[in-house]
């Protein structure tokens, strides 16, 4: 069964990311066609990247924190990047984590859930370009959580499982596509020499 990781790209206090995580967890935990786990970059504080390129050093990790993240990412067959949009880009903390790693992502699919005034669209487009360099397969189907949802979540007693429910069909498309690619690429990776 494909193992999917949700990579959480915001580490801010009071982050909107927590609502997205709650919604995704609720929808994914009842599925019997995947296993998933959350990779919260808050749990992986890393120094600013200043090392030799991980594309060359591969799994020769320079310290325990990076080894821990790398070995965690290795477990997944596919990823969903959960991304905020800061100044029309994705977060620095996510780029830093990406730059510390490389081979762990190779030949695996990447799907995207973004939030912001235009649903994190600009951050997601940037991430798609970056994931190509990581030798990933970035997918078309994304979930864009528009600013209206962010405002709705600020209402007293707002429940993310209900507020974000209109996005369930988009999530279904994303997951269906991600699982197809995870399966296809997992088979293809197994046939690689070495
Ligand atoms: C430094 C900064 C820059 C931002 N720039 C944008 C932006 O360019 N586009 C946008 O839609 N929202 C922008 N926002 C608003 C974010 O979409 C909003 O704060 C959102 O909650 C961020 O996600 P997070 O709370 O999970 O970190 C920005 C927020 C911050 C803190």
Describe this entry's structure for a reader.
With 194 residues, the protein is α/β, with parallel strands linked by helices. It contains eight helices and five strands; from the N terminus they run E-H-E-H-H-E-H-E-H-E-H-H-H. It has helices spanning 17-29, 54-57, 64-74, 92-99, 121-133, 147-152, 160-163, 168-190, and strands spanning 3-8, 35-40, 78-83, 109-115, 137-145. Strands 2-1-3-4-5 form a five-stranded parallel beta sheet, sandwiched between helices. The radius of gyration is 16 Å and the shape is globular. The chain starts with a strand and ends with a helix. The model has no long low-confidence stretch (mean pLDDT 98). Residues 10, 12, 15-17, 84-88, 116-118, 150 line the site of flavin mononucleotide (FMN).
